[in-house]
Amino acid sequence: MTLSKLPYKGTRDLFPSEKRVQNFLFEKMNITAQLFGYEPYDGPLLEEVDLYRAKSGEELVNEQIYRFMDRGEREVAIRPEMTPTLARMVAQIHREAPRPIRWYAIPNLMRYERPQKGRLREHWQFNVDIFGGKENLAEFEIFNLAITLLQSFGANATHFEILVNHRKLVDYLFKDKMKLSSEVALKLYKLLDRFKKLPEAVFLEQLETFQLSKDHHTLFLEYLRLSSFEDLEKFLTTHHIDSAVWNFGTFFQLTKEFQLTSYLRYDPTIVRGLDYYTGIVFEIFDKHPDNRRALCGGGAYDRLLEIFGEKPLPGVGFGLGDVTLKDFLQSHGLLPDLSKPKNDVLLTFQIDGGMVPVMRLAQSLRAQGVRVITALETLKLNKIFPLAEKRGAKCVSILDDQELISNQVALKNLITGKQITFALNDLSAIIKFIMD
Amino acid sequence: MTLSKLPYKGTRDLFPSEKRVQNFLFEKMNITAQLFGYEPYDGPLLEEVDLYRAKSGEELVNEQIYRFMDRGEREVAIRPEMTPTLARMVAQIHREAPRPIRWYAIPNLMRYERPQKGRLREHWQFNVDIFGGKENLAEFEIFNLAITLLQSFGANATHFEILVNHRKLVDYLFKDKMKLSSEVALKLYKLLDRFKKLPEAVFLEQLETFQLSKDHHTLFLEYLRLSSFEDLEKFLTTHHIDSAVWNFGTFFQLTKEFQLTSYLRYDPTIVRGLDYYTGIVFEIFDKHPDNRRALCGGGAYDRLLEIFGEKPLPGVGFGLGDVTLKDFLQSHGLLPDLSKPKNDVLLTFQIDGGMVPVMRLAQSLRAQGVRVITALETLKLNKIFPLAEKRGAKCVSILDDQELISNQVALKNLITGKQITFALNDLSAIIKFIMD
Prior knowledge:
The structure is a homodimer. In chain A, strands 1, 5, 6, 7, 8, 9, 10, 11 and 12 form a nine-stranded mixed sheet that branches. In chain A, strands 14-13-15-16-17 form a five-stranded mixed sheet, sandwiched between helices. In chain A, 40% of the residues lie in helices and 20% in strands. The two termini of chain A are 54 Å apart. The first copy, chain A, folds into two domains: 16-331, BirA Bifunctional Protein, domain 2 (2-Layer Sandwich); 343-435, Anticodon-binding domain (Rossmann fold, 3-Layer(aba) Sandwich), CATH 3.40.50.800. In chain A, 43% of the residues are buried. Chain A is an alpha+beta fold. Chains A and B meet through helix 1, strand 1, strand 2, helix 2 and helix 3 of A and helix 1, strand 1, strand 2, helix 2 and helix 3 of B.
């Protein structure tokens, strides 16, 4: 039997050209998180299923999670998201840790789903969370961090927007205004969450099944049509909805202060599904017509630690996947060409006797931080330039009879075309030539 | 029901102080691999079980692997090691890729084992492999890379040694000299592999079950007593074993040339289990008396692609786990103190009106690459120094009535004790003060 060479369904083989892209994304994530003083963490790949059951309910656990029994009869699952692990970890230390707690991670996650563009079974996700910060300031910081990350790739308000809503407002609308029971409200949440994915006719048909009164139906449709913060303000005034339900206060002040309002848009359909959010919720949306999709979702929550018997601890966070981020950057031409490796120098030898001097030079250069790739056999002159090109080497060395006799090496810079012969032991001149 | 806050058995919660240590290890791994021109790759967390079955046999698959059926009736496993994935990926591209192929990865892996010191169920492993390089030169490069990595942490030949053997020699001894069948030789391999783990009496007792002839028994014990390359040379001469069986040629020349022989020791018990190695095999051993354990294992192989119906492609590689590496560095005092984060500055405000100027300053500093942590509420003076200490901030800012009125900010360097008041808009002076 010959085995398949293909990766498991919905997962990726990250060959070097793809892994370099992923590393490029990870590096920006790490740098941005550190600029804001967020500390790195990570957790186990496997968690007990009870953790997800407590947080997300039986349905998600049954449908979308890779789960199995281990040999010790523990029901375990491959993490489909990081938040439950984060909650478990924060529950262990939040009493002693100085607040706010600012943490980030870039874990690999698996979901059991039908693979489609932008959604694979395995992906990596940048998770950023702040716990115990003053509400509006923490929200602002999280938005600011997400925007700063995307800006670091060269993206701006022409490329993406942040669609914002507030769970307290939706709750108030459904329960206080429309008098829905918690159970029915939950179902309407689910439908609202699918608004963008359903054809309008299907959506309206499904809305009919709720048998809302005419007034409530009208109110709901009016709500659905809101498309800006100005619309929202009018809506709240018209329907006498207390601004306390929707108090962005400092958050809005800061977004204006920092000219971030151009990134924000009110969107009544953003509710983040059945998730644990209790405050502001948001999704970062790609504005590219071919790629209208959420890159990132997040929001504020305060009862995440409840399942561990801990008191409420307010938090705000988001998750940004590597697949959607890459698609976003690609669709806007913001991804640099990383198809080739980057090496400072390719050291070659044209005669067997050149091998030891070359290995010795390689050793000395590496000790000074020069990225050196060495040939492992004698190479003819006509082979080395194509090889250097494929290896992404900036410079290349030549060592033939002539150089060997005089203890020299010829170096060529492939970008400038400049070529100089150096004494093999003149390390500082060689490094200067290569790194210039 | 209250959920457990503890991680799943045999796995770790990496809180920031631990994650920083892991990142420190990963950074050195990345840097070292890049100094040698190795390209990064990664693969899926899940593979089909057949892949491991083909490579390692049914026993390993049954005993040590997390495996389950997915909903599409595929038998899948969480990767217990990276080599099968690597082989699958190299099989896809080796015909077109320029040789040698130099790749590395740092994947998370899971094995179903009883957790013990230095061996957890989940760990990360630095995997480095070279394919299609001239045999001895490729081996030398791999050894050199492993040594360079450990040296980059400050380790040297007083801290670790590389125990070396050669599968061809053991094969020749077992099959040609001792006339064992392949099946019996395999069993003796297994026993030899456990030599260091078994009490001598138990080992000898188990050896008896092989019912070796007196001559072969004596020969085997003589082999077992070899403890240096000099011993080995004598042994080969005495028993007329052709040096072609054990030809290190260029490899030895280079290790001598580069003064690496002090790191190497011949060890007849190193065979790397039932693994796919066909040439040189090695383990890097900690010399610390409290931590006598292999950090790293590797070797040369040439039939890795056979299971995909591909022709032999010689390769050399090793795997180095993060748990054993950390234990090694810790036991020798080579791990820096990373218990606290590192931030350039903590920006605080003592009055509400200071918040916006502080956020604005934070924004400007971050745009220049300064790692800024901001307070999210007004802080009293006596609170800020302990907080800065906990946050690992080098500098701290104070912004009270007086500064606010005059558009200034007071900055203190907590290491030197120096304190200066700056105009809030004098960004370059502020940055110079913080980063100096």
